Amino acid sequence: MIARHWLQSMAIVGLLLLVVLLSGCYFNAFQTARTVGKGKVALTVGCGVINVAIPGEYDWLFTPQGRITIGLTDNLDIGVQSGMKIWSTGEPTFLGVAGDLKIGLIQDPQSISFALGIGASYQPGVLGWGVAGSVWLDSNLPFLPVFFVYRPMLLLGADPLSIVHHVGGGLHLDLSDHVRLLVEIDSWNGELGGGISLDIIF
Predict the structure, then answer these.
(1) Which of 26, 79, 128, 130 is the most exposed place for a label (fewest CB within 10 A)?
(2) What is the per-residue burial (b if ≥16 Cβ within 10 Å, else e) of 6-28?
């Protein structure tokens, strides 16, 4: 029993270190203001797409992603997300790693959910390291199952330091008590994109 609690504590510390040390971009939100609940784990698989400018041209970038979220308390989640970048030519590269903490300030399944988050990510190449805050707002009304997120990110490797803005929103559709479908449209500093994911809570 003690060994199990020790292993859980070390896993949480490791995830917290990832949150502090990592930072980046092109990640879709693939989460809402709703927290997963104490002791529960959510696995999310999805794929995003973004139309990025490449010197005088435009090219599509596909971003298959996976995420794991752990409920530390009923209103506090920690999560880690990673994936691949696949250009329209078919060339795959590492997308990076992102981590975050999310605190649910309002969690009313009949009306709204509101949460704040802080996190970091690393995206190889242009964006590199950065830290980000997040503001989440969900409508939980059955006839309006939408969510919104605003996430400003400070790019630590930029000279001078710069901030990029991630704004997104979409639908969160409950397929069952433990499975949700998220459909998202977002903008990374003016670059439009979107994605779809399946969220499974254990």
Answers:
(1) 128
(2) eeeeeeeeebeebbeebbbbbbb
Evaluated on CA atoms 151, 104, 185, 43, the torsion sign reads: positive
Q: Note the pLDDT tens digit of each residue in 41-54.
A: 999 999 998 876 65
Mean pLDDT of 63-73: 96
State how far the Cα of 186 lies from the Cα of 6, in Å rounded to an integer.
39
CA 4 to chain centre: 28
Domain boundaries, the chain: 2-201
Of 28, 60, 23, nearest to 47 by C-alpha is 28
Q: What is the pLDDT of residues 153-185, one digit of tens each?
A: 998 877 788 898 999 999 999 999 999 999 999
How much is the pTM? Answer: 0.81
Report the DSSP pairing between strands 41-54 and 146-155. Answer: unpaired
